[in-house]
Amino acid sequence: MFILFMVVFFVFSSMVTTAFARLGIPPGVAYTLFLFSLFGSFINIPVAEETTYEPIIGLREVRFLGIPYPVPYFDWAERKVVIAVNVGGALVPLSVVLYEVTRLILLGRFSTLFNVLLATLIAALFSHALARPVRGLGIAMPMFLPPLIAVLLGWTLGGDNPTLVAYVSGTMGVLIGADLMNWGKLKRLGAPMVSIGGAGTFDGVFLAGVIAVLLV
Questions:
Q1: CA-CA distance, 17 to 149, in Å (whole number)?
Q2: Any idea which of 44-48, 102-106, 166-170, 205-209 has the lowest mean pLDDT?
Q3: pLDDT digits (tens, 9 = 90+) for 66-76
Q4: Packing angle between helix 2-22 and helix 27-40, nearest 10 degrees?
Q5: Phi and psi of 69, rounded to 5°?
Q6: pLDDT digits (tens, 9 = 90+) for 26-54
Q7: Quick check: 156 pLDDT over 60?
Q8: Sequential DSSP letters for the chain
Q9: Which of 1, 15, 65, 157 has its CA 20 to 30 Å from the CA of residue 115?
């Protein structure tokens, strides 16, 4: 099991660092981002708390002539849902995107920036259409469809930098379309906490960008 874990760790870290290197990030920084993503997947930062009311059916005891009878009754129960942001699955990809967007602005490549924004909008709409709120679980969607959509957007809108368009549209498309655009539904999922970015490094937000970059 230890050997298998080391093999999986090496393969996955190589995939992630290779993807970041193709975005122009130095290998040392890329490996650091991978470690932040891995360990940050266990860290959720609360950002909001929503309150919702759910119908419940309870039982109370009523006595008649000394004989107890269970009587059902209808009531409303208050439930609080904590909305958090996952460090590995949301903040790390977001930091990479902000770095790349800032570099485009400083280099004056506004046509590429426009294509990036357009691809992100299209990917977000696709992700929103595919995402389904699952009660007790969170926002679920097919894992491999967002990367494929990002690859197609990288090929069609990427121009001379399809890798960047694929990564930004892959990560931000899922983050915006699946999570943020379903914000109003999060409090009705029946879970005590909902994490934007989900399960961190293995969440769709992170994997969408990595897989998309490797496939372009």
A1: 22
A2: 205-209
A3: 778 787 877 77
A4: 130
A5: -130, 130
A6: 877 877 887 887 788 788 888 888 777 77
A7: yes
A8: -HHHHHHHHHHHHHHHHHHHHHTT--HHHHHHHHHHHHHHTT-EEEEEEEEEEEEEEEEEEEEETTEEEEEEEEEEEEEEEEEEEEIIIIIHHHHHHHHHHHHHHHHT-HHHHHHHHHHHHHHHHHHHHH-EEETTTEEE--SSHHHHHHHHHHHHH-TT-HHHHHHHHHHHHHIIIIIGGGHHHHTTS--SEEEETTTGGGSHHHHHHHHHHHH-
A9: 15
Where residue 201 falls among pLDDT bands split at 50, 70, 90? very low
User: Where are the domains positioned within the chain?
Assistant: 2-52+79-215
* Position 191, amino acid: A
In this structure, the number of other CB atoms found within 10 A of the CB of residue 15 comes to: 16
Q: Which two tokens stand for residue 147?
A: 């990367």
Check if the beta carbon of residue 208 is closer than 8 Å to that of residue 178.
no
Nearest-10 crossing angle of helices 162-174, 204-215: 160
How many angstroms separate the CA atoms of 63 and 160, rounded? Answer: 80
User: Which residues lie across from 38 on neighbouring strands?
Assistant: none
Specify the residue for token string 């130095």. 26
Strands 132-134 and 138-140: antiparallel
CA 208, distance to chain mean position in Å, is 9
User: How many Cβ atoms from other residues are within 10 Å of residue 190's Cβ?
Assistant: 15
Higher pLDDT, 204 or 103: 103
